Amino acid sequence: MVWALQTVHPSTFTGVFCDASNFLFDGLLQFYTQMKQLGKPFEVVFLSCDRDSKSFSNYFGHMPWLAVPFDSDKRENALGALQVEGIPKLVIVGANGMVLQDNAVGTPLNAQKLDSWIAGRP
Question: In terms of Cα–Cα distance, which of 103, 102, 76, 89 is closest to 2?
């Protein structure tokens, strides 16, 4: 999974076939819900590493955030630009498009960390 944020863009790269991705999804979903309730200025964008569009559609159907369409060249370009070689991967991209954290998997996701990313700090 690859997710990206609006003010801070966390990009997550994952696939349905990855148990670790499912674990990351649960934590990110809770974080996303809590931060949206607090009015934090961010968005998550999913970049799929699924093997086919049906798998993408089935998995994305459970997500409340945005996604780059599976068959879009932009998805492939973003995966390459963000150097996604393994999943799951959570890339934090600032509002200026600069990568703040190459892989935030394992980083505690909380309001304090999000505020740091929003301020442009890793």
Answer: 89
